[in-house]
Amino acid sequence: MASIMTNASALTALQSLNSTNKNLETTQSRISTGYRVAEASDNAAYWSIATTMRSDNKALSTVQDTLGLGASKVDTAYTGMNKAIETVNEIKNKLVSAAGSTEADKAKIQTEIAALQSQLQAYATSATFSGSNYLSVDTATHAVAGTHDGASVVSSFNRAADGSVSLSKIAIDVESIKLYDAATTDADDAGILEAIRDSTGARDAAATVAVAGTYLATDGFAVSTLTVVGFNDEQIGQMLGVVEGALNEMTDAATTLGAAKQRIDLQKEFTQSLMDSIDRGVGQLVDADMNKES
């Protein structure tokens, strides 16, 4: 029908123009922002997923920083442990030199041993990073990362299928690597260098520190306090067993620290890969295809 009041063709043309303008605005918005889904009104489901994933990625970025800090702490302890091992080996050499020496020579050798013992304490005390020290601790005051037996490094941020979140940690067994512990009450809880040992190198919880000249086979010594003055060759030989026992524990401790450092490095690499994967996933959901939009 023909009507002077309604122009159907004009209405159709107007609708087409409005649709074209709307599509043009959408395209301009996508080109300017780079996003196909820039806000919830564009696609509520995709926007919600992308927002959550971006939030998780920020948490993972913080985990990356924490892993870096943890790696530095472990590396500092590892460096201190290696220097301590070198120094205890020097003490071992001094004990060998003391065997068969005169008392006058033993006194000179003991001066050198005492200097090395002081250096061991200095290494342990200095092995501190960001307030954490795994080699010289005070478990009575929970000075190691707020725990009695160890410390930990946050290694991952996890989101379960139900949406709940949690953190995973890499444990550092400080109890097995500490060289000194201000809270020591017996040989079992003592640091490696202050633990009293028998001639086999085993920790002797019942032993008491011997007084020079009164050493008995049932007594014990700690690397941090042993002295060669007043002791015969047989007794110095027993001291070598004490040092050897400490060296074995220190080697195990260095291995523990090395393994922890390796695990932290691997986790750091994985976390970076995970963050990159999440970024790509978010991009697939919300990024605009510039070739298509142009």
UniProtKB/TrEMBL annotation:
UniProt key word Disulfide bond: no
Broad class of where this protein is predominantly found: secreted
PANTHER family attached to this UniProt entry: FLAGELLIN (PTHR42792)
Organism this protein belongs to: Mesorhizobium alhagi CCNWXJ12-2
CC terms in the record's Gene Ontology section: bacterial-type flagellum; extracellular region
Superkingdom of this protein's organism: Bacteria
Compartment(s) where it occurs, according to its Swiss-Prot or TrEMBL record: Secreted; Bacterial flagellum
Protein's name in the database: Flagellin
Keyword Acyltransferase included in the entry's annotation: no
Function: Flagellin is the subunit protein which polymerizes to form the filaments of bacterial flagella.
Domain Flagellin N-terminal, first and last residues per copy: 4-136
Example GO molecular function: structural molecule activity
Keywords, sorted A to Z: Bacterial flagellum, Cell projection, Cilium, Flagellum, Secreted
Residue stretches making up the Flagellin C-terminal domain: 241-294
Family, similarity comment: Belongs to the bacterial flagellin family.
Lineage per the UniProt record: Bacteria, Pseudomonadati, Pseudomonadota, Alphaproteobacteria, Hyphomicrobiales
